[in-house]
Amino acid sequence: MLQRGKNGRTTHFSYICPTFKSMEEITKSLNFIEHIIEEDLEGSYSKNELRFRFPPEPNGYLHLGHASSICLNFGLGERYDAPVNLRFDDTNPAKEESAYVEAIKKDVAWMGFHWDKECYASDYFEQLYKWAVQLIKEGKAYVDSQSSEEMAKQKGSPTTPGIAGPYRNRSAEENLDLFERMKNGEFEEGVHVLRAKIDMESPNMLMRDPILYRVLHKAHHRTNTDWCIYPMYDWTHGQSDYLEQVSHSLCTLEFLPHRELYDWCLDQLVDKDKLRPKQREFARRNLSHTVVSKRKLLELVEEGVVSGWDDPRMPTISGLRRRGYTPEAIRNFADTVGIAKRENLVDVSLLEFHVREHLNRIAPRVMAVLDPLKVVITNYPEGSEEWLEAENNPGDDQAGSRQVPFSRELYIEKADFKEEANRKFFRLKLGGEVRLKNGYIIKAESCTKDTDGNIIEVQCTYDPKSKSGTGTEESLRKVKGTLHWVSVSHAIPARVNLYDRLFTDENPDGHKDKDFMEFVNTDSLETITAFLEPSLKNVKVGDRFQFQRLGYFNVDKESSSEQLVFNRTVTLRDTWAKIQQKK
Ligand code: ATP
Ligand code: MG
Questions:
Q1: What class is the 368-484 domain?
Q2: How far does Cα 306 stand from its chain's mean position?
């Protein structure tokens, strides 16, 4: 599914698909994980044995990287009609919270996916403990009582083998006794750990007696103080997969070296009659101009760079939702990028392309002026008003229409008027004509300036016979430009948040000598007062609109009937398509 650019360049752009794919095309092509599954189905697996899981750690909110894993796992579930579990990988009470669990559930559901079972690694603590005891009895695990520095020294390096520590050959009895006392809370953190006894000379460093359990005197959001020893990732993940009978455990590439350990752990326990899960890896998704790491996103929240996890500039699912993104846009984006075997940086403008594409289809059109300039129609009777018919979405027959008020005093955008301009300026200039969207043709006659020379008002005349939609010859008269506008006396002032990228650098995370925080874009939020057509008076939080000629906007959660608040989701300009055309 991933394509190289026509010129074969290997920049990140070469990994993104140059044209938008229809859903049909997306579902037809198989990614490499699906090829693995197809092969398995031809071999020993049957279709009804397929089961997947999405395994977030509840230590933060989900971000766009997770969206790729969600779409992969739940997408496989949909393709093979197989169950997908939502598994919380909750083995580190120091960082995990039930508030994160709730946020994650909300986000996955919002994306439109349904999980089969809601599972928690913490549900398996008892079983994992029993299995660890079994390992000790079989001489395959031991309690090590050294400091982490000593253990690290003995581990060697990728090029030099490790050596055995002094506790490696403790007797099973002593190990069982110590492990039980660890469990009973007799020891401080860091005094003892339980390690698997595998091979200190393995070429794979992870196989050099990895830690299985550590003491943590922290209350857990589900098991509270029942436990003060907690299993490590490697001792938890494969076993959880096994207990849930997950057939394909898909994780990101950094876990490739863990696969040997995943298999070793399973080898110690697997009942040959039961399905044995397999771990397969795909590349992490990285996105330009942002960071996708919960730890770093938490830093942005804690440092007050953003207002919270759901700040509309955040690459979190909740931030994107608040910004006005649709689940469809995020899913189409994930499907277009697909999954890769190598890490790549995907340009964020591809995501913007997808939200534009979807909102173009579904968002009702309205008029709003962000940077107002007053226009007075001098030949329009004072005190009069009329209501003009305006289509809600010309591309959608079902969308219907609404009425917009027209009167003698209007606002247009400042940038839409110049006293003088060349022939390429298709907006309003002195002596020139434009059509007001859904309304009349107007002609600029003169303008007024303040003492600083700023234009503060334009006086125009209108052609009363040119009203849109009346079918008369004058109404069909063509002029070069069409402007959006609002009637001054009817306009509703609203607070509008205009967002820009959160980081100035394309890859803020990719600098060895600089911290990502150094690249924070200090101008990523501009708040203005805009003027909206009155049909927007009763909008609800989350409603999405196209402000004509400006972009897509949605109603922020802080909005109320006294003070409307909108977020700009994305501008209308399609920079991604432009970049593609230039290639
Ligand atoms: P983070 O560094 O942001 O905490 P993580 O991998 O530790 O990421 P988890 O909650 O453990 O976060 O991840 C849940 C699942 O989502 C895992 O299978 C993980 O591999 C996947 N995932 C996380 N980040 C990405 C990403 N950038 N691209 C693709 N998949 C990801
Ligand atoms: Mg993690």
A1: mainly beta
A2: 16
